[in-house]
Structures are given as structure tokens and as C-alpha cells.
TrEMBL record:
<dbReference type="InterPro" id="IPR015590">
    <property type="entry name" value="Aldehyde_DH_dom"/>
</dbReference>
<keyword id="KW-0560">Oxidoreductase</keyword>
<dbReference type="GO" id="GO:0004777">
    <property type="term" value="F:succinate-semialdehyde dehydrogenase (NAD+) activity"/>
</dbReference>
<dbReference type="InterPro" id="IPR016162">
    <property type="entry name" value="Ald_DH_N"/>
</dbReference>
<protein>
    <submittedName>
        <fullName>NAD-dependent succinate-semialdehyde dehydrogenase</fullName>
    </submittedName>
</protein>
<dbReference type="Pfam" id="PF00171">
    <property type="entry name" value="Aldedh"/>
</dbReference>
<feature type="domain" description="Aldehyde dehydrogenase">
    <location>
        <begin position="30"/>
        <end position="489"/>
    </location>
</feature>
<feature type="active site">
    <location>
        <position position="267"/>
    </location>
</feature>
<dbReference type="InterPro" id="IPR050740">
    <property type="entry name" value="Aldehyde_DH_Superfamily"/>
</dbReference>
<dbReference type="GO" id="GO:0009450">
    <property type="term" value="P:gamma-aminobutyric acid catabolic process"/>
</dbReference>
<dbReference type="InterPro" id="IPR029510">
    <property type="entry name" value="Ald_DH_CS_GLU"/>
</dbReference>
<dbReference type="InterPro" id="IPR016163">
    <property type="entry name" value="Ald_DH_C"/>
</dbReference>
<comment type="similarity">
    <text>Belongs to the aldehyde dehydrogenase family.</text>
</comment>
<dbReference type="InterPro" id="IPR016161">
    <property type="entry name" value="Ald_DH/histidinol_DH"/>
</dbReference>
Amino acid sequence: MTVTAATELTERESALLAGVPTGLLINGEWRAAASGKTFDVEDPSTGRVLLTLADAGAEDGAAALDAAVAVQDEWAATAPRERAEILRRAFDLVTARADDFALLMTLEMGKPLAESAGEVKYGSEFLRWFSEEAVRSFGRYSGNPEGTAQILVQKKPVGPCLLITPWNFPLAMATRKIAPAIAAGCTMVLKPANLTPLTSQLFAQILLDAGLPAGVLNVIATSTAGAVTGPLIQDTRLRKLSFTGSTPVGRRLLADASNNVLRTSMELGGNAPFVVFDDADLDAAVEGAMAAKMRNMGEACTAANRFLVHESVAEEFATRFAAKMAGAAVGRGTEPETKVGPLIDAKSRDKVHSLVTDAIADGARAVVGGALVDGPGYFYQPTVLQGVEPGARILSEEIFGPVAPIVTFKNEDEAVALANDTEYGLVAYVFTRDYARGLRMANRIETGMMGLNAGVISNAAAPFGGVKQSGLGREGSLEGIEEYQYTQYIGFPNPDNA
Ligand code: NAP
């Protein structure tokens, strides 16, 4: 399998890139880094440089937090309706430029255009959802059980937040944090991933165009994440850290955040089991497997990482799944026929390959795939592995690539034990025609989310998040805004007794 040599950027791609801000956004202005340093952003399907951005240092990080702190009180005092309408305008502006956002994501991240278009819909929906939540965030008023006192409860913005996002969903991971923070009345410093910061840059400009006041959102792309965010996390003016990324980095940031007892939201790694029972609709299970495995080339925290299949249907499932995987065209995301784009970089691709070669060395068999793809860019063949033994490294680490290891089980108890045999607990998928069994699995699997006969369940209206070492807190839904609020209680004597 070979991917053909790269062509030059098209006129449309060049024009789009020319409109992406390249500075740091601090207090409403795009500016160069204090050091004058820059870093390059590359296209993972060709390795060519797309744009060069200002590279924030610690001094810029401090300026960004200064700006967020300076406007926090004024921003918190704005009417919820005003904040809601900024979000709604931003939703309309992103929607109007949906094709631009999709192309930009494909260029910097690699996923096929159709998938990028899907992310624009999903990611922008957080803007609309939280524009609606901004005006529906209520407290409560009640008496105590003794009848002697009154209890007034109100929700207040937590204050300035540091938001750190990963490279795999460049728009959605940003809107899932920024929209509820705006709705709640918090100011922010956003540090996007250095591999895919361009979408955040363009999105930040959209928010300014939608009327977001200067200083509410500050964006500091950097090639030295820890050096820039470390001092911010130790600054007592910061009140909240919301992080999406890997569990090892999340653990470290949680430890750092403990010094100032920061509020934290942690959306971390996953190791999703995909359980297929003997009574499953196999066509639906194979469709679901393709979606749960191949969305984002497998580079999703929600990606199915372990296929646990009842022994009586394992052969049939593997054959049908492998046929679909073999038919998924690998190529650059900008090419219309592409179903599988490149992985994000050489390191990620090499890690995927080492997991596959280890599994094969331990006795697994590649039904399809199992090799690197020649050509520029970091492509990997869609791969199905059968005969993977429980305990294999590929079953305990996030694969983050288009590789599906299959393990068989004999009964429900064994399926549950295998599903729970991981430090992660983000999402699980279960395919069965028996809904009682499906709901029983939800009770027995330690997971923050479960797809029942569904391979993709992300939605702005649903509470997204994990248990165990997959994280803390929820994004989206009713819970999402609460991550950016604290609860204040005011007690006073019952006026009837005065
Ligand atoms: P990552 O390496 O943990 O990086 C995530 C973010 O943290 C990036 O912005 C990165 O900056 C920054 N970062 C890295 N080291 C840091 C440090 N010492 N101090 C402060 N910031 C630091 O993860 P990734 O490779 O970008 O993303 C993939 C991971 O994210 C996977 O584990 C995936 O499961 C997880 N993920 C989880 C969810 C969820 O909702 N649960 C969603 C998507 C992804 P640089 O880019 O500059 O390194």
C-alpha cells in the first residue's frame, strides 16, 4: 500500500491559511511572543509546514492570566442573556464557515474531510447548547427541616480558568470547555495542543467577531507546554484547570494543581471494550465496530480498543469486520475517497506498529493489515488481529490507531471481567439484542459512558466523561456548566419566626 506524493497547497487552502491568526491572543489583541520565538505547524499527511505561529513563553502566559484576571469581575456581572447571545452568534459564524473549519482541521490533523465536517457539527453544537444553558442555570430556596432557618443556594462562576486541549479533536475539545466557561461567566487562558493549534486560532477570532469582550478568552499556543502552564497553575489567581489529554500528563497536572487546591476537570485516556454477544445483530455490530474503531483513524479517547467477542460468533465477526477494514481507503484527508487519514506523527505511528508487532510475536494473527504504509506522511494500514491473549500489551495501552485486537469470551461473567480489566473507565460498547442484558452490562461495567448497540455516542446534550483513571468531571449536558460554577449557600433565620 502506497500513498502518492504530496501536491502543492491549492489556492483555496493557501487563502484559508492566510486568514488564520498567527499571534498569541492576549487581552483582545493578536501579538508576537515576548521572546519573538515561533514554531511550525505541519500537515501530518505530507510533513510540510502549513503555518508558523508565535511561540508563547512563561512571560506571555503571565500576561494572558493578567488579562483574564483583570476582566473576571466585569465579565461575571454581565447578563446571562448577553453571554448566551455571544455563544449563539459564534455558533452561527462557525456554521457559516463550516467548510473552512473542516478543511483547516483536515490540513493540520489529517482526518478525512467528511469526518472534519462531522466534528464541526459536533463541536459547534456546544456553542448552541451552552447558549441555551447560560440562561437556565438556577439556584434554589428552601427551609431547613427544623423550620427555623432558610437556605438560599446560588451558582457563581469559579473565576479565571486554564484550559488545556489535545490535538485529536481540534474544535470540539476547545468548544466543550470554552462554551460552558463563557456561559458560566468565567474568563480563560486556552493552551491548545502544539500539533493542531490552527483551528483554535481561527475559532478564537470567531469569538471576538461574535462580540466576546477583550481578555475573556486568551490563547497561548506554545511548543513548551509545561514551562508556560506550570507557573499559571501555581498562581493563586487561577481558580480552575480543565484538561483533556493523556492520563500520565493528567496525573502530573492533578498533583501540581493540589498546591492551590484548584478546581479540576480531567478528561483523560480510555481503553474502551467493545463487547459482542452471541445474540447481537452482526451487521449492526460490524457497522458499530467500524465507527467506534475508525472514527478519527482510531485516535480518539472513545476509540474501541479491545474487541471482546463471544466465541461462537468470533470467526464470523472477524471475517466481516476485516472485509470492511480492508475496504477502507487510506490517503490524505483532502482526497474525497479517503476513509483513513494519516496518524498525527511518526512517534504515534511507530508506537501503533510496535503494539502490533508485539501482539503478533506473542501469537496473534493479522487477519488484515499489520504494516506501515509507504509514502510521505504517517499512514498505517487498517488492521484486525485475531487470537490476542488476555494480558497482551495491546490490550492494556491506548492504541490510538486503526488497529482492532479481538479476544474471545465464553459467558457474560467473563465478558464483564475482561471489560473491567483496565485502569481506564471512559466508555464501553455492548452489542446484544437482549436489552435487559445490555442494561445489566451497564450496571456491571465500570465506565462513565456506554453505547448500547451504538458505536458513536458523543453529543453536546450528553454528559461526557469517565471513571477510574479516565478522569474527573463531565463535559456537555446539564453537568457541563457546573464544572465552571461553585455553589454558594446563604443561611438566615426563618422570617416567620422573627
Ligand atoms: P497529551 O500529550 O496529554 O497532551 C494534551 C495537552 O496537554 C496538549 O495541549 C499538550 O501540549 C499538553 N501538555 C503535555 N504535557 C504537558 C505538561 N507537562 N504541562 C502542561 N500541559 C501539557 O495528550 P495528546 O497526545 O494531545 O492527546 C491524546 C490523549 O488525550 C489520549 O490519551 C486521549 O485518550 C486523550 N483524550 C481524552 C479525551 C476525553 O475527553 N477523555 C478526549 C480527547 C483525547 P503539547 O501539545 O504542547 O504537548
